[in-house]
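Support request from a user on the community tier.

User writes: "When I paste my C-alpha coordinates into the form, the page sometimes reloads and wipes my input. The last time it worked, I copied everything first. Here is what I submitted, just in case something in the input itself triggers the reload:"
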Protein backbone atom coordinates (compact mmCIF):
# COMPACT_ATOMS: atom_id res chain seq x y z
CA UNK A 1 0.00 0.00 0.00
CA UNK A 2 2.82 2.38 0.94
CA UNK A 3 4.63 1.59 -2.34
CA UNK A 4 1.51 2.45 -4.33
CA UNK A 5 1.21 5.76 -2.51
CA UNK A 6 4.84 6.57 -3.18
CA UNK A 7 4.53 5.66 -6.87
CA UNK A 8 1.31 7.67 -7.18
CA UNK A 9 2.88 10.67 -5.50
CA UNK A 10 5.92 10.53 -7.78
CA UNK A 11 3.68 10.20 -10.85
CA UNK A 12 1.59 13.15 -9.72
CA UNK A 13 4.67 15.29 -9.11
CA UNK A 14 6.12 14.37 -12.51
CA UNK A 15 2.81 15.13 -14.23
CA UNK A 16 2.59 18.52 -12.53
CA UNK A 17 6.21 19.23 -13.45
CA UNK A 18 5.56 18.38 -17.09
CA UNK A 19 2.41 20.51 -17.15
CA UNK A 20 4.29 23.37 -15.51
CA UNK A 21 7.12 23.10 -18.03
CA UNK A 22 4.63 23.10 -20.89
CA UNK A 23 2.83 26.12 -19.45
CA UNK A 24 6.08 28.03 -18.99
CA UNK A 25 7.17 27.31 -22.56
CA UNK A 26 3.75 27.82 -24.19
CA UNK A 27 4.24 31.57 -24.86
CA UNK A 28 7.57 30.90 -26.59
CA UNK A 29 6.06 28.05 -28.60
CA UNK A 30 3.11 30.21 -29.67
CA UNK A 31 5.43 33.08 -30.55
CA UNK A 32 7.46 30.76 -32.77
CA UNK A 33 4.29 29.39 -34.37
CA UNK A 34 2.91 32.90 -34.99
CA UNK A 35 6.22 34.06 -36.46
CA UNK A 36 6.21 31.05 -38.78
CA UNK A 37 2.65 31.76 -39.87
CA UNK A 38 3.44 35.45 -40.42
CA UNK A 39 6.49 34.57 -42.50
CA UNK A 40 4.46 32.16 -44.61
CA UNK A 41 1.76 34.80 -45.12
CA UNK A 42 4.32 37.41 -46.20
CA UNK A 43 5.88 34.91 -48.59
CA UNK A 44 2.47 34.15 -50.13
CA UNK A 45 1.74 37.87 -50.32
CA UNK A 46 5.02 38.49 -52.15
CA UNK A 47 4.02 35.98 -54.84
CA UNK A 48 0.58 37.60 -55.17
CA UNK A 49 2.12 41.08 -55.35
CA UNK A 50 4.57 40.01 -58.05
CA UNK A 51 1.88 38.50 -60.25
CA UNK A 52 -0.83 41.13 -59.74
CA UNK A 53 0.60 44.42 -58.49
CA UNK A 54 4.06 45.00 -59.97
CA UNK A 55 2.83 46.23 -63.39
CA UNK A 56 1.46 49.35 -61.67
CA UNK A 57 3.27 49.64 -58.32
CA UNK A 58 6.72 48.38 -59.37
CA UNK A 59 8.67 45.29 -58.35
CA UNK A 60 9.73 46.74 -55.00
CA UNK A 61 6.63 48.83 -54.43
CA UNK A 62 8.52 51.92 -55.61
CA UNK A 63 5.61 53.10 -57.73
CA UNK A 64 5.53 54.01 -61.42
CA UNK A 65 5.14 57.71 -62.28
CA UNK A 66 1.82 58.40 -63.96
CA UNK A 67 0.58 54.86 -63.28
CA UNK A 68 0.35 54.19 -59.53
CA UNK A 69 1.91 55.52 -56.31
CA UNK A 70 4.76 54.04 -54.27
CA UNK A 71 3.77 51.66 -51.49
CA UNK A 72 7.28 51.08 -50.18
CA UNK A 73 7.33 54.68 -48.99
CA UNK A 74 7.34 56.39 -45.56
CA UNK A 75 4.36 58.54 -46.60
CA UNK A 76 2.13 55.46 -46.47
CA UNK A 77 3.25 54.39 -42.99
CA UNK A 78 3.72 57.69 -41.18
CA UNK A 79 0.13 58.83 -41.65
CA UNK A 80 0.79 61.39 -44.38
CA UNK A 81 -1.10 59.57 -47.11
CA UNK A 82 -3.98 58.70 -44.79
CA UNK A 83 -4.28 62.38 -43.90
CA UNK A 84 -4.24 63.37 -47.57
CA UNK A 85 -7.18 61.11 -48.37
CA UNK A 86 -9.03 61.77 -45.10
CA UNK A 87 -8.88 58.19 -43.81
CA UNK A 88 -9.40 57.90 -40.04
CA UNK A 89 -8.43 54.25 -39.47
CA UNK A 90 -5.08 52.49 -39.23
CA UNK A 91 -2.57 52.07 -42.06
CA UNK A 92 -3.32 48.34 -42.13
CA UNK A 93 -7.06 49.01 -42.43
CA UNK A 94 -6.41 51.51 -45.22
CA UNK A 95 -4.31 49.03 -47.19
CA UNK A 96 -6.84 46.22 -46.69
CA UNK A 97 -9.77 48.39 -47.77
CA UNK A 98 -7.97 49.74 -50.82
CA UNK A 99 -6.78 46.32 -51.95
CA UNK A 100 -10.16 44.71 -51.30
CA UNK A 101 -12.57 47.25 -52.75
CA UNK A 102 -10.28 49.16 -55.09
CA UNK A 103 -10.51 52.88 -55.67
CA UNK A 104 -13.30 53.74 -58.13
CA UNK A 105 -12.46 57.46 -58.08
CA UNK A 106 -9.02 59.12 -57.79
CA UNK A 107 -7.95 60.56 -54.45
CA UNK A 108 -7.93 64.33 -54.19
CA UNK A 109 -4.64 65.80 -55.35
CA UNK A 110 -3.39 62.68 -57.12
CA UNK A 111 -2.35 62.43 -60.75
CA UNK A 112 -3.08 58.75 -61.36
CA UNK A 113 -5.89 58.56 -63.93
CA UNK A 114 -6.25 54.78 -63.70
CA UNK A 115 -8.58 53.38 -61.10
CA UNK A 116 -7.33 50.85 -58.56
CA UNK A 117 -9.13 47.60 -59.45
CA UNK A 118 -11.19 45.56 -56.98
CA UNK A 119 -9.31 42.46 -55.78
CA UNK A 120 -11.47 40.87 -53.08
CA UNK A 121 -14.12 38.29 -53.97
CA UNK A 122 -16.35 40.15 -51.50
CA UNK A 123 -16.50 43.02 -53.99
CA UNK A 124 -16.41 41.03 -57.21
CA UNK A 125 -12.64 40.58 -57.49
CA UNK A 126 -10.58 37.37 -57.89
CA UNK A 127 -8.86 36.97 -54.48
CA UNK A 128 -10.01 35.13 -51.36
CA UNK A 129 -9.96 36.73 -47.90
CA UNK A 130 -6.80 34.85 -46.92
CA UNK A 131 -5.05 36.06 -50.07
CA UNK A 132 -6.04 39.64 -49.28
CA UNK A 133 -4.59 39.16 -45.79
CA UNK A 134 -1.35 37.84 -47.30
CA UNK A 135 -1.06 40.87 -49.60
CA UNK A 136 -1.70 43.26 -46.73
CA UNK A 137 0.91 41.51 -44.57
CA UNK A 138 3.46 41.69 -47.39
CA UNK A 139 2.91 45.42 -47.90
CA UNK A 140 2.98 46.09 -44.16
CA UNK A 141 6.33 44.27 -44.03
CA UNK A 142 7.85 47.33 -45.74
CA UNK A 143 7.01 49.51 -42.76
CA UNK A 144 10.34 48.97 -40.99
CA UNK A 145 12.48 50.10 -43.93
CA UNK A 146 9.94 52.00 -46.06
CA UNK A 147 12.08 52.05 -49.12
CA UNK A 148 14.52 54.82 -48.45
CA UNK A 149 12.33 57.85 -47.73
CA UNK A 150 12.58 59.31 -51.24
CA UNK A 151 10.89 56.66 -53.38
CA UNK A 152 9.00 59.29 -55.41
CA UNK A 153 11.96 61.66 -55.86
CA UNK A 154 13.59 61.00 -59.24
CA UNK A 155 17.37 60.71 -59.11
CA UNK A 156 19.58 62.35 -61.69
CA UNK A 157 19.82 59.95 -64.65
CA UNK A 158 23.04 58.00 -65.01
CA UNK A 159 22.28 57.32 -68.68
CA UNK A 160 21.51 59.34 -71.80
CA UNK A 161 17.70 59.66 -72.06
CA UNK A 162 16.31 59.18 -75.53
CA UNK A 163 14.20 62.34 -75.25
CA UNK A 164 10.99 63.21 -77.08
CA UNK A 165 12.27 64.06 -80.56
CA UNK A 166 11.11 61.79 -83.38
CA UNK A 167 14.23 62.62 -85.41
CA UNK A 168 16.62 60.75 -83.12
CA UNK A 169 18.49 57.85 -84.69
CA UNK A 170 17.76 54.64 -82.81
CA UNK A 171 19.98 51.54 -82.64
CA UNK A 172 18.79 48.16 -83.86
CA UNK A 173 16.12 46.81 -81.55
CA UNK A 174 15.96 43.40 -79.87
CA UNK A 175 12.32 42.13 -79.83
CA UNK A 176 13.01 39.57 -77.08
CA UNK A 177 14.53 42.21 -74.83
CA UNK A 178 11.68 44.57 -75.73
CA UNK A 179 9.14 41.98 -74.59
CA UNK A 180 10.78 41.76 -71.16
CA UNK A 181 10.75 45.56 -70.87
CA UNK A 182 7.11 45.70 -71.95
CA UNK A 183 6.04 43.01 -69.48
CA UNK A 184 8.05 44.45 -66.58
CA UNK A 185 10.39 41.49 -66.13
CA UNK A 186 13.28 43.83 -67.00
CA UNK A 187 13.68 47.47 -65.99
CA UNK A 188 14.22 50.57 -68.08
CA UNK A 189 17.48 52.50 -67.99
CA UNK A 190 16.24 54.41 -64.92
CA UNK A 191 16.05 51.14 -62.98
CA UNK A 192 12.26 51.01 -62.84
CA UNK A 193 9.80 48.89 -64.84
CA UNK A 194 7.80 50.52 -67.61
CA UNK A 195 4.47 49.04 -66.53
CA UNK A 196 3.21 48.76 -70.14
CA UNK A 197 1.48 45.40 -69.70
CA UNK A 198 -0.52 46.68 -66.74
CA UNK A 199 -2.69 48.79 -69.07
CA UNK A 200 -2.07 47.49 -72.61
CA UNK A 201 -3.57 44.03 -72.13
CA UNK A 202 -4.05 41.82 -75.16
CA UNK A 203 -7.77 41.29 -75.71
CA UNK A 204 -8.83 43.91 -73.15
CA UNK A 205 -8.78 47.63 -73.85
CA UNK A 206 -10.50 49.24 -70.89
CA UNK A 207 -7.68 51.59 -69.78
CA UNK A 208 -5.47 51.63 -72.87
CA UNK A 209 -5.79 50.28 -76.43
CA UNK A 210 -5.43 46.53 -77.00
CA UNK A 211 -1.81 45.82 -77.85
CA UNK A 212 -2.46 42.84 -80.11
CA UNK A 213 -2.20 43.81 -83.79
CA UNK A 214 -0.55 47.18 -83.08
CA UNK A 215 2.08 46.63 -85.78
CA UNK A 216 -0.69 46.48 -88.39
CA UNK A 217 -2.93 49.23 -87.00
CA UNK A 218 -0.12 51.69 -86.26
CA UNK A 219 0.44 52.54 -89.92
CA UNK A 220 -3.23 53.58 -90.27
CA UNK A 221 -3.45 55.92 -87.27
CA UNK A 222 -1.90 59.14 -88.63
CA UNK A 223 -1.58 60.15 -92.25
CA UNK A 224 2.03 60.17 -93.41
CA UNK A 225 3.24 58.14 -90.43
CA UNK A 226 4.81 54.73 -90.72
CA UNK A 227 4.02 52.16 -88.05
CA UNK A 228 7.44 52.69 -86.48
CA UNK A 229 7.05 56.47 -86.35
CA UNK A 230 3.59 56.24 -84.84
CA UNK A 231 4.76 53.81 -82.14
CA UNK A 232 7.79 55.99 -81.43
CA UNK A 233 5.60 59.08 -81.00
CA UNK A 234 3.05 57.19 -78.90
CA UNK A 235 5.74 56.25 -76.38
CA UNK A 236 7.63 59.55 -76.03
CA UNK A 237 4.77 61.96 -76.91
CA UNK A 238 1.69 60.01 -75.76
CA UNK A 239 -0.76 62.90 -76.00
CA UNK A 240 0.18 63.75 -79.60
CA UNK A 241 -2.49 61.33 -80.82
CA UNK A 242 -5.08 59.77 -78.52
CA UNK A 243 -7.05 56.80 -79.83
CA UNK A 244 -10.79 57.42 -79.89
CA UNK A 245 -12.52 56.16 -76.78
CA UNK A 246 -9.50 56.67 -74.51
CA UNK A 247 -8.35 59.63 -72.46
CA UNK A 248 -5.30 61.87 -72.78
CA UNK A 249 -2.92 61.87 -69.84
CA UNK A 250 -3.34 58.21 -68.92
CA UNK A 251 -0.11 57.11 -70.60
CA UNK A 252 2.94 58.20 -68.54
CA UNK A 253 4.40 61.38 -70.00
CA UNK A 254 8.03 60.86 -69.00
CA UNK A 255 9.23 57.82 -70.94
CA UNK A 256 11.54 60.04 -72.99
CA UNK A 257 13.43 60.82 -69.78
CA UNK A 258 13.26 57.29 -68.34
CA UNK A 259 14.32 55.32 -71.41
CA UNK A 260 17.61 54.99 -73.22
CA UNK A 261 17.61 54.87 -77.01
CA UNK A 262 18.19 51.12 -76.76
CA UNK A 263 15.19 50.69 -74.44
CA UNK A 264 12.96 52.48 -76.93
CA UNK A 265 14.35 50.57 -79.90
CA UNK A 266 13.84 47.23 -78.13
CA UNK A 267 10.23 47.97 -77.15
CA UNK A 268 9.44 49.21 -80.64
CA UNK A 269 10.98 46.06 -82.13
CA UNK A 270 8.78 43.91 -79.90
CA UNK A 271 5.62 45.85 -80.75
CA UNK A 272 6.38 45.51 -84.45
CA UNK A 273 6.09 41.72 -84.06
CA UNK A 274 2.45 42.04 -82.92
CA UNK A 275 0.74 41.95 -86.30
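"...and here is what came back when it finally went through:"
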Amino acid sequence: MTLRVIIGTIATVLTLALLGWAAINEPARMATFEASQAGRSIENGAALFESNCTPCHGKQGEGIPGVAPALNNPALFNGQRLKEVGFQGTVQDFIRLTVSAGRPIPSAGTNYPQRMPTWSQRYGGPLRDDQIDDLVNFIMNWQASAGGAVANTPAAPTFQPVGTSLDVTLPAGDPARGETLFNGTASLADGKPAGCSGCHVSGAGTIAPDIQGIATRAATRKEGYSAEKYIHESIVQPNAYVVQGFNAGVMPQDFGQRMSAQNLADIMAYLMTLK
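Agent notes: The reload is a front-end session timeout and is unrelated to the input. The first helix runs from residue 2 to 52. Confidence is low (pLDDT under 50) at residues 147-154. Escalated to web team.
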